[in-house]
Amino acid sequence: MPRALEPAEPIVDGDGTPYSPRYGDVYHSSRGGLAQARHVFLGGNGLPERWRGRRQFVIVETGFGQGLNFLATWQAWRDDPQRCGHLHFVSIEKHPFTRDGLRQLHAGLGALLPLATLLQDAWPDMLPGLHRLEFPHAPGGSVTLTLAFGDAEALLPRLAVGADAFYLDGFSPSRNGDMWSEAVFRGLSRLARAEATLATYTAAGFVRRGLQAVGFDVRKVPGFGGKRDMTVARFAPAWKTRRHAPPVAASWPERHAVVIGAGLAGCAVTERLAARGWRVTLVDRHAGPARQTSAHRAAAMHAHISSDDSLLSRLSRAGNLHALRAWRALAAAGHDVGWHGCGVLQLGEDEAENAAQRAALAALGFPESFVRWMSAGEAADAHGAAVPRGGLWFGQGGWVAPPDICAAQLAHAGPAVTARFGCEVASIARVPAAPAGAEGAEGTDDWWQVLAADGSVIATAPVLVLANAYEAARLLPSPYRELRRVRGQLTDLPPAAVDALGTWPDCVVTGNGYLLPRAEDGSARVGSSYDPDEGPLVARPEVHADNLARLAALLPTLSQNRAGAPGTLDPRTLEGYVGVRTVTHNRLPMIGRLPDEARALEHAHALRGAHLRDLPRLPGLYASLAFGSRGLTWAAMAAELVASQIEGEPLPVESDLADAVDPARLLLRALRHGRRAADSASG
C-alpha cells in the first residue's frame, strides 16, 4: 500500500539554521549550507574539474533537503566555461519541503536566489515517484534535476542511473540510521559507474566500513565547520565484472536518428532528441504531421488512480505530470500548445464505484491540487455539470488539440529536423557502417536504413525510432503480433444542438464515455467508442447513437429537456472523428529498445530464467508505440525515456515502470513459457 508523503517543515533553530524536529537534527552546518556544499560535496568529489570535457555527468544524492547542494552545484556548472554539456542531478527525498517552505528558506540566498527561484517555480506536487525538472542554459547545455520522492531504501533499487559522483547528505547517522544502512550502500554500489566518486560530511566508522564492503576505496580528509574529518571515496571494487552494470554515457558514431511517424509519439521523440543536439530525419507517409490517429482537434487528459497505486496508475501519473511540464516548457520557449486546463471530473458508473473512488483517495493521501473529491452539487454550481453523482476532480486535467502539440514540438526542434513527408516506408535494414559519402560518417557499427517500396533509400542513421503505431509491426525484423488495432469514434454536436441541450459543462466530464467543453464555434464533442477495427474508417450512425447514450448517462438531466434531449437527435445527421488506436495485450505501451528475437531464440534455453536486462537487443532500434487511448498522457514521457536510453542518461521513471513498458516484455514471457514471442500475445 503506498504511503502519502509527509512534508518537511521550514523551521530554523536559534542560529537561523534549518532544523528537523522529526529527526532532531539540522539540515547543514551552522557555518553555512552553501559553504558546506562547496567544501564537502563539490570539493570532495573533485568538482568542477571532473565534469570538464564530458558530454554528460551524473550526480546522485541521498537527501535533497532544501536543495543547497543542488543549487551550489548548478551555480558551479553555470560559471564553469569548461562545463559538461548535460549535468544530471538525481536526488532522493523522503520528506520534501513544499514550494512555500522552500521560498521561506531560500529568501536569504543572495546571489543564488535567481537559481533558487527557478527551482521553486518548477517544484512538483507532493506525489511519490520521480519528477524530472529541466533547466536549459544558453548558448547550450542543460541541467536536469530528477527528484525521487520517497524512502531511499525503496527507491535506490528502482533507479535506472549510472552515477559519476555521489553526495551522501542524510541527517546524522545517529539520528536517521535508515539513510546509512547496508541496503543504501548496496544501492549506491549498483549505480556506480567506473571510477565514480563519493563524499559525505560524516567520518563514522560504520559508514566507512559499509562503503568499503560494497566496493568503495575510502579515506578520511579534513572536514568542514569544526568537524575534524569527513569521508571521500572512489568506486574501485575488487570484482572485475558486474552482471548488470549501470548505463554509461553513450557514444554514437554520429548523432543522427531517423524517426518514423509524425504523430504525438514521433514529434515528441524528435523534439527530445533535437534538444540534446541530435539531427533527426522525420519520416511519415502523410503530407504533414498529425494526419492520422493524432489528427483530431480535441482530446482530454487526466490521471488514473487506484487504491493500490497500480502500475497503470503510476505510469498515468508520471505521464500526466511529465506532459504538463513539457508543454509548459514549450510555451516558455514561444511555442504554446493551446492546453485548456479546465479540469476533469471522473464519475463512477454507480454508487459502488464511487465508494471505491473515495476509498482510493483516502488510501493514497495525494494533495488536493492533484486530485480531490467533488460533489454533484459543486460540479453543477462551479462548472455547470449536472452530473448524477460526485466524482474525482483532477484540477490539472483538461483538453488540447494533438496537432497543435506536434506543431509546437517541431517548431521547437527547428532546423535540427529534416522532414520527409509523403514517404511510405516499406522496410528497414541494417547496413555495414555508414554508407560511403554519408555526411559525418564515422565508426564501424552497422546503421539502420529506411527503404521505400522501390528499394530507394529514404534515410540512413545509426539510430532508428519506430513511432508509427500499428504500422511498425510490418517493419520489425521478427514477426510481432502484439500490436492490435481498436476503432474509436467521436461525435460532434453542432452549436444549435448544444444550445438546445441547455447548460453545458465548462470542464471535461468522463466516466463511461466523456464530453468536452464547448469549442469556440459553440460545438461540443462526446465519445468514445472502443470497438474492433473492422471495415472502413467512416462514421457510423449506430456508434453516434451509442455516444449519445453515453452523454445521457453522464448528464441525465438532459433527457428531461425533451426538445433537445440526446435521444431526440438523429444520429444519421451527425458528424464526428473516426480513428484507430494501437494497443498491446495488456494495454500498456511499448517504449524503449527493441529485442533481438532471433538471437534470443538461439539461446532460448539459457534465457528461460532471464530478466529483461539479460535479453539481447537490436542495436540502435527503439520504439514509442501503442499508447491506446492515452497518447496525450504517455507521448512526452515516452520520448524522454527513449532519448534517455539512447544517451545513457538517468531514466525519468523508476526501473519497474520502464520494465512494464519494455518492448521485450512479451519476448521474455514467451521464453519463460518456451514459445515464440509472435505466438505469445494471446497466451
Automatic annotation (TrEMBL):
<dbReference type="GO" id="GO:0032259">
    <property type="term" value="P:methylation"/>
</dbReference>
<feature type="region of interest" description="FAD-dependent cmnm(5)s(2)U34 oxidoreductase">
    <location>
        <begin position="260"/>
        <end position="683"/>
    </location>
</feature>
<feature type="domain" description="MnmC-like methyltransferase">
    <location>
        <begin position="116"/>
        <end position="233"/>
    </location>
</feature>
<dbReference type="GO" id="GO:0004808">
    <property type="term" value="F:tRNA (5-methylaminomethyl-2-thiouridylate)(34)-methyltransferase activity"/>
</dbReference>
<dbReference type="Pfam" id="PF05430">
    <property type="entry name" value="Methyltransf_30"/>
</dbReference>
<comment type="similarity">
    <text>In the C-terminal section; belongs to the DAO family.</text>
</comment>
<protein>
    <recommendedName>
        <fullName>tRNA 5-methylaminomethyl-2-thiouridine biosynthesis bifunctional protein MnmC</fullName>
        <ecNumber>2.1.1.61</ecNumber>
        <ecNumber>1.5.-.-</ecNumber>
    </recommendedName>
</protein>
<dbReference type="GO" id="GO:0016645">
    <property type="term" value="F:oxidoreductase activity, acting on the CH-NH group of donors"/>
</dbReference>
<keyword id="KW-0274">FAD</keyword>
<keyword id="KW-0511">Multifunctional enzyme</keyword>
<dbReference type="InterPro" id="IPR047785">
    <property type="entry name" value="tRNA_MNMC2"/>
</dbReference>
<comment type="function">
    <text>Catalyzes the last two steps in the biosynthesis of 5-methylaminomethyl-2-thiouridine (mnm(5)s(2)U) at the wobble position (U34) in tRNA. Catalyzes the FAD-dependent demodification of cmnm(5)s(2)U34 to nm(5)s(2)U34, followed by the transfer of a methyl group from S-adenosyl-L-methionine to nm(5)s(2)U34, to form mnm(5)s(2)U34.</text>
</comment>
<comment type="similarity">
    <text>In the N-terminal section; belongs to the methyltransferase superfamily. tRNA (mnm(5)s(2)U34)-methyltransferase family.</text>
</comment>
<keyword id="KW-0560">Oxidoreductase</keyword>
<dbReference type="InterPro" id="IPR029063">
    <property type="entry name" value="SAM-dependent_MTases_sf"/>
</dbReference>
<dbReference type="InterPro" id="IPR023032">
    <property type="entry name" value="tRNA_MAMT_biosynth_bifunc_MnmC"/>
</dbReference>
<dbReference type="InterPro" id="IPR036188">
    <property type="entry name" value="FAD/NAD-bd_sf"/>
</dbReference>
<keyword id="KW-0963">Cytoplasm</keyword>
<keyword id="KW-0489">Methyltransferase</keyword>
<keyword id="KW-0808">Transferase</keyword>
<dbReference type="Pfam" id="PF01266">
    <property type="entry name" value="DAO"/>
</dbReference>
<dbReference type="GO" id="GO:0050660">
    <property type="term" value="F:flavin adenine dinucleotide binding"/>
</dbReference>
<dbReference type="InterPro" id="IPR017610">
    <property type="entry name" value="tRNA_S-uridine_synth_MnmC_C"/>
</dbReference>
<dbReference type="InterPro" id="IPR006076">
    <property type="entry name" value="FAD-dep_OxRdtase"/>
</dbReference>
<dbReference type="GO" id="GO:0005737">
    <property type="term" value="C:cytoplasm"/>
</dbReference>
<keyword id="KW-0819">tRNA processing</keyword>
<feature type="domain" description="FAD dependent oxidoreductase">
    <location>
        <begin position="257"/>
        <end position="644"/>
    </location>
</feature>
<keyword id="KW-0285">Flavoprotein</keyword>
<feature type="region of interest" description="tRNA (mnm(5)s(2)U34)-methyltransferase">
    <location>
        <begin position="1"/>
        <end position="236"/>
    </location>
</feature>
<dbReference type="InterPro" id="IPR008471">
    <property type="entry name" value="MnmC-like_methylTransf"/>
</dbReference>
<dbReference type="GO" id="GO:0002098">
    <property type="term" value="P:tRNA wobble uridine modification"/>
</dbReference>
<keyword id="KW-0949">S-adenosyl-L-methionine</keyword>
